[in-house]
Design a protein that fits this description.
Layout: H1 2-50, H2 69-72, H3 83-99, H4 107-116, H5 121-181
């Protein structure tokens, strides 16, 4: 009987100690994930704010299109400063305007045509517009929006780790309390 108590106490001590380690690990991961969320969010905001991009003002003809207005009216007149805004602007403002250049052809298509006809001034102008527009759209989607999604995921991971760490801490305290009663 005494040997069973000794084994039980050893098992409880081991599990409680492992719980303490798990608690520390969860809190450290939660802290690092929160730092990543803050770092990403701050950088996305600061980089977008420095570009001074503004949505057209409320009631503007630029928002009248059914391909644009329903997606951008909520941001009318605001400065573009976050990932969701960057996605909306890229997908429903820039992309719509790019589809109106060169009859909806892409940069690659127009560039191929220009190679076949290098003196075509219209193709050169369309290529330049498409290059600039697709580059800006890609930066807004790839840098601002994608990184803001990663930041949101880091925030969720942080919260989950902090909640799990708090739950583990309660279990560890109960484990030490249980050990003291043996």
């Amino acid at each position: 009987m005494a040997n069973n108590n000794k084994q039980r106490k050893l098992i409880d001590k081991t599990l409680t100690s492992l719980g303490l380690v798990a608690t520390v690990v969860l809190i450290v991961i939660g802290g690092l994930a929160w730092w990543a969320y803050s770092f990403i969010g701050g950088n996305v905001h600061d980089e977008l704010a420095s570009q001074q991009i503004y949505f057209p003002p409320k009631g503007s003809p630029a928002l009248a299109s059914p391909k644009i207005g329903p997606y951008l009216n909520q941001y009318a007149g605001q400065q573009l400063v976050n990932g969701e805004q960057a996605k909306a602007y890229a997908d429903h403002f820039i992309a719509v305007h790019l589809s109106e250049v060169a009859g909806g052809k892409t940069y690659a298509q127009v560039s191929s045509e220009l190679q076949a006809n290098p003196t075509n001034v219209t193709l050169k102008a369309e290529q330049q517009k498409l290059f600039q527009g697709e580059t800006l759209r890609g930066l807004l989607l790839g840098d601002a929006y994608a990184f803001s999604v990663m930041g949101s995921i880091a925030r969720i991971v942080s919260i989950v780790c902090f909640v799990a760490g708090a739950a583990m801490l309660v279990l560890v305290v109960l484990g030490f309390w249980h050990l003291s009663t043996l």
